[in-house]
Design brief:
The chain is α/β, with parallel strands linked by helices. The chain has a domain of about 180 residues: Rossmann fold (3-Layer(aba) Sandwich), CATH 3.40.50.450. Strands 8-7-6-5-9-10-11 form a 7-stranded parallel beta sheet, sandwiched between helices. A two-stranded antiparallel sheet has the order 1-2. It has a two-stranded parallel ribbon with strand order 3-4. It is globular and about 50 Å long.
Length: about 270
């Protein structure tokens, strides 16, 4: 490794010392690590979670943060109270129109909407857009719980009720609070996060047991096999916990299960 060579102080071409580190170093020498300079948080979630990190500049107090969280939840509850319970659909933002995943999500939104269910999604693109679009095709209520992200667009154009969120956890509360059932389509880390947090809430009796349906056995089969062969075999879950996840490919069965779940909550479906 090449040693760092500190330039002479009287050298006019020498790099300048900023915050104790050298910048614009001669490429022939190894620079000292440069600390990330303070910057504004990119999202409200980051401002909350990274409030004590030197890299984030914030003038908010914890009391102000708590007030903001309460205000967001209060607004969301007021907006969603009229819908009662719908079916929450999780799925990837990367499922583009023309793909099998997008087509499945749109048909799902239509079939559930045609059966009288409100469709609740994250309000973004991909599978979320497709499910909202299907609901709109069926003239059913289409809800989008949109999250503030630094790299993602606004609400998709197929949402009747747009409920914006700055805090992920507040949004997740509403995904669960207003759902009689959950249908999970193929997705990545975000979808897996939503899936397993929902299952954990049901497993721990934080919410009344509601069906969690995984559509596309070709996609979900591996994780179900791993759940059985690893989580169950090593005693990380019980036999009964396996029943919290159900892989269902038949659309009619999905609609029937969601209808039964709605009736079990005593909310019925919209005429």
């Amino acid at each position: 490794m090449t040693d760092f060579i500190e330039p002479a102080e009287d050298d006019p071409s020498a790099p300048q010392d900023i915050h104790g580190v050298w910048t614009d170093l001669d490429p022939r020498v190894m620079p000292m690590p440069i600390e990330e300079l303070p910057r504004e948080a990119q999202t409200t979630d980051e401002e909350l979670i990274a409030a004590d990190e030197r890299a984030v500049v914030s003038e908010a107090t914890d009391d102000q943060r708590v007030d903001r969280i309460a205000a967001e939840i209060r607004r969301a509850f007021a907006a969603l109270e009229p819908i009662g319970h719908g079916v929450t659909v999780f799925g990837s933002a990367r499922s583009r129109e023309g793909t099998a995943e997008y087509t499945l999500a749109r048909r799902l939104g239509y079939e559930l909407g045609d059966a009288g269910h409100t469709i609740i999604t994250g309000g973004g693109p991909g599978a979320m857009e497709a499910a909202n679009r299907g609901a709109m095709d069926a003239q059913a209520t289409s809800v989008g719980l949109r999250i503030e992200l630094p790299f993602e667009q606004g609400t998709n154009p197929y949402v009747d009720l747009d409920v914006p969120f700055k805090y992920f956890f507040a949004r997740k509360v509403c995904f669960v609070r207003y759902a009689c059932a959950f249908v999970v389509l193929p997705g990545g880390y975000g979808t897996l996060d939503e899936l397993f947090e929902t299952v954990c809430l049901i497993q721990t009796d934080k919410v009344k047991q509601r069906p969690v349906l995984l559509m596309d056995s070709g996609f979900w089969g591996g994780i179900i096999d791993w759940t059985k062969s690893t989580l169950l075999e090593r005693g990380m879950i019980d036999e009964d916990d396996l029943g919290l996840l159900r892989v269902v490919d038949d659309m009619d069965e999905v609609v029937r299960i969601c209808g039964d779940a709605s009736a079990a909550l005593g909310v019925g479906v919209h005429e």
